[in-house]
Design a protein that fits this description.
The complex is a heterodimer of chains A (219) and B (131). With 219 residues, chain A is α/β, with parallel strands linked by helices. Helices cover 32% and strands 27% of the residues of chain A. Chain A contains seven helices and eleven strands. In chain A, the strands form two sheets. Chain A has a six-stranded parallel sheet, sandwiched between helices. The radius of gyration of chain A is 22 Å and the shape is elongated. Chain B has helices at residues 7-18, 30-40, 52-58, 74-87, 100-108, 118-130, and strands at residues 2-3, 24-27, 43-46, 66-69, 92-96, 112-114. Chain B is of the alpha/beta class and 131 residues long. In chain B, helix 2 links the parallel strand 2 (24-27) and strand 3. Chain B has a six-stranded parallel sheet, sandwiched between helices. Chain B is globular and about 50 Å long. Chain B has a single domain (2-130), classed as Rossmann fold, CATH 3.40.50.720. Chain B starts with a strand and ends with a helix. The chains are: A alpha/beta (219), B alpha/beta (131). At the A-B interface, helix 4 and helix 5 of A face helix 3, helix 4 and helix 5 of B.
Chain lengths: 219, 131
Amino acid sequence: MYVTIIGCSGVGYHLAKALLAAGHEVLVVEKSRSKCQLLYDELGSVVLCGDGTDQRVLKSAGAGRADILAAVTGVDETNLVVCQMAKETFKVARTMAVVTDTKNESVFHFLGVDVVVNTTHLAVTSLEGGVPGRPLIHLLDLRVPDTELVSVSIPEDAAVVGKRLGEIQLPPHSFVSLVVKRNQAQPAASNLVLEGLDEVVAVTVADEEQRLYDALTGV
Amino acid sequence: MIFGCGTLTDLLVPYLKQAGHLVTVLTDDADALERLRGEYQVKGVYITEPLMQDYLQEGDIEIAEVFLAISGRDHQNVLVAQIAKHIFNVGTVICRLENPQLQQLYAGLGLKIIGTSTSGLYEETRQLIDG
């Protein structure tokens, strides 16, 4: 596959390296000459020095034959412009963008960017997971609006301990998808008995998050 | 609602206020905003972080009839103009762009574009050179 990467910050650099190692054809477009030189010294001629929001630069980068274009500059709106230009002018089949303003994630999807990665959200989720006694962890936003995958750790004194999954009352749009017991994942069968310290992975919607949490952890 | 606080905003605000319109200005230029607030009693929203939708809602974009994205930064204008048009369904959205490539791209995507026409400038300059 031919992947054009716009921007060579940490993300662009590591993405290029990973894709090259996986045997893909990669070209990184970067404005800063010094960053281009560093990349050239390490990865060879996979870098084009220029403004990735300039159509002439994208054209000479071969955007017209790119299977994927990934806009990973540190500026959300620039990533949007690059993706829209790639889609409209160069008919790139798959565009990807990184955002830091969390609300831009849905906006970019709506405006036609195929894959939107919200780095703030990813960082917060990882940090949340590192805090002991954490309440509810957001694992993933699903493509269905408002729907998300979350994880809840069952306290040892919770009312649900010893109950079968089928007996537990959950909010209407929430359901358990799997339960992790002592590092072994098990499908959420209705006769599966919950124990303290189990990790319950569930699908829920934003409005029901708190009720789901209360149902699983209440004493 | 006006995003950006440059010369064009300075010219538009007195006109709009005189015509009896409610005006909200969003900008990261605190001094310009303070001045406009004092002189023309516009509502001002001071932007300090990249949380665009929150700021738009703080400025009551839900009731805006016209949205002008006329800061000096093309990419920001493109983002907020599209949020205003497609997320908040503002009736009239005008986006200022200086880059001719972007003018063409976003006119094609349905935005109303204002900005200097580079081809016009080119013709004008050539005529002046040729006498």
